[in-house]
Amino acid sequence: MDDNAKSHALNQINYGMYIIGSRNGEELNGMTANWVIQVSFDPPLVAIAIENDSHTRKLIDGGRVFSVNVVEDSEVGRALIDLMVKPQKPYRNKMDKFEFVTGETGAPLFTDAVSWWECEVVNTIESGDHQLYIGKVVNAGINKADATPLSLAALGWHYGG
Ligand SMILES: Cc1cc2nc3c(=O)[nH]c(=O)nc-3n(C[C@H](O)[C@H](O)[C@H](O)COP(=O)(O)O)c2cc1C
């Protein structure tokens, strides 16, 4: 295989930008992600791919729930991305900086998100260096009806290839 072509082509997938919220017991976390996709209308199912060695993975494995927060193309949206891309472990206070409420599942829902939904995990698939979680959407909300969601291309970063 031509590795250069593989990376080039895979980086041409269009993505949005999200904060994955997770919860296990009293512990909450948020993580920047773009590997998010709807995979069924009925029931409404969404798949997210989460790095095996991330803290988010530990929390989702324990709590079996997650939220997906759609990030706004704005200064506050970019600030959320900047903070939530840091690993939870050395920071430990990622959740002190931005307002959130907890939803039906207990996962964090960020006030600055354009919209959000929360899921119960119905299936977990080992997927190389990531875990693929299939979640059933059990609740959703809109914070900013007229805001523009941030795309990976507009952000100008890469995660893929
Ligand atoms: C643009 C971008 C997109 C990312 N998308 C994902 C993703 O879809 N899944 C994932 O597991 N990590 C993704 N990451 C990496 C995580 O945000 C990063 O590993 C984070 O530190 C994990 O946080 P945690 O340790 O608190 O779980 C992405 C990073 C960047 C820069």
UniProtKB/TrEMBL annotation:
InterPro entries: Flavin_Rdtase-like_dom, NADH-dep_flavin_reductase, Split_barrel_FMN-bd. Coiled coil: none annotated. Residues 10-159 form the Flavin reductase like domain. The keyword Oxidoreductase applies. Pfam families: Flavin_Reduct. Keywords: Oxidoreductase. One of its GO terms (molecular function) is FMN binding. The keyword Signal does not apply. This is Flavin reductase family protein. The lineage of its organism: Bacteria, Bacillati, Chloroflexota, Chloroflexia, Candidatus Chloroheliales.
